[in-house]
Amino acid sequence: MSTCRFLRTEALSWMSDVENVTEGHSQDLALQPVWDYLLQNHHDHLRSPLFPVVLSVTTYFFLVGLYTVLDMLAPHWPCINRYRLHPDRPITWPNIWTTLWVTIYNHLLYIFPAAVAQWLWRPPTPLPREAPTLWSFFLGILGCMVVFDFQYYLWHLLHHRVPWLYRTFHAVHHQYNQPFSLVTQYLSGWELFSVGFWATVDPILLQCHCLTTWGFMVFNVYVSTEDHCGYDFPWAMHNLVPFNLWGGAPKHDAHHQRPGTNFAPFFSHWDWLGGTHTVPTPSSHKTGEICKNKSTLFLKKSQSKMV
């Protein structure tokens, strides 16, 4: 009787060990079916140096198109307008056309030639047969976010503290002190190049898998667009990440109204450490103005009154 009990205990223990090993193994291979499908059906497209550019650009215009539809519906649909940071100041068609034109201009003048140059001179991307594990996938994206966050915090801070850099390169982005989605890439060529350069190089520095790199690019575009969208949705990142660790649309909206605060694009810790962190107040949302200022205003006003 005791022998049977012993064998049963050993069998149950062995089955438990097998289940644990199988569960861990299946978790490691969770992305493999997706990666196999991509390799089998889209191998040539994925290897092209143009693919990361196309992925980022299409993601951006898809998200901007979605938010722009919401902007047009918000004045007529209270269920949408209630989530806007400035519900009493609707987005106008002149705002949309102006920012859209600058975005298209930048893509034609900077992004398209850079993409063609990559296509001509950069070799096709080697694609490994194995997918990244779930752990390495999310850890790689987090690592790229942390590095990018630090890089852009320094760049952003420098371009606000040095008047020449602000006037020459960054002032155009602050011509709207009430951001909406199309303001995300309402940038100078230098700023667009800087952001694109780090988003491309950081996954290489961290030796990320191709799938991880593309995941970071998509997430980076999503967060940048969300920061400028002008909405405070319950599912927004700053409402999901605890302890006020994430920036989000309200803090970046406050940055456009008080340009000496909230420089980091993702997290809040660098602004805490640098003494540039501020929490937006409801009154700051009510006082925001959505007007496009002439660049000469930035040449004449001090940094404390930059709009």
From TrEMBL:
Coiled-coil intervals: none
InterPro entries found in the cross-reference section: Fatty_acid_hydroxylase, Sterol_Desaturase_Related
An example Gene Ontology molecular-function term: oxidoreductase activity
Transmembrane segments: 50-74, 95-121, 133-155
Gene Ontology annotations for the cellular component aspect, listed alphabetically: membrane
Compartment list: Membrane
UniProt KW Membrane keyword: yes
Keyword Ribosomal protein recorded: no
Swiss-Prot/TrEMBL GO biological process terms: lipid biosynthetic process
Major subcellular site: membrane
Fatty acid hydroxylase domain residues: 142-276
Keywords: Membrane, Transmembrane, Transmembrane helix
Pfam families, per database record: FA_hydroxylase
Protein name per the record: Cholesterol 25-hydroxylase like 2
Origin organism lineage: Eukaryota, Metazoa, Chordata, Craniata, Vertebrata
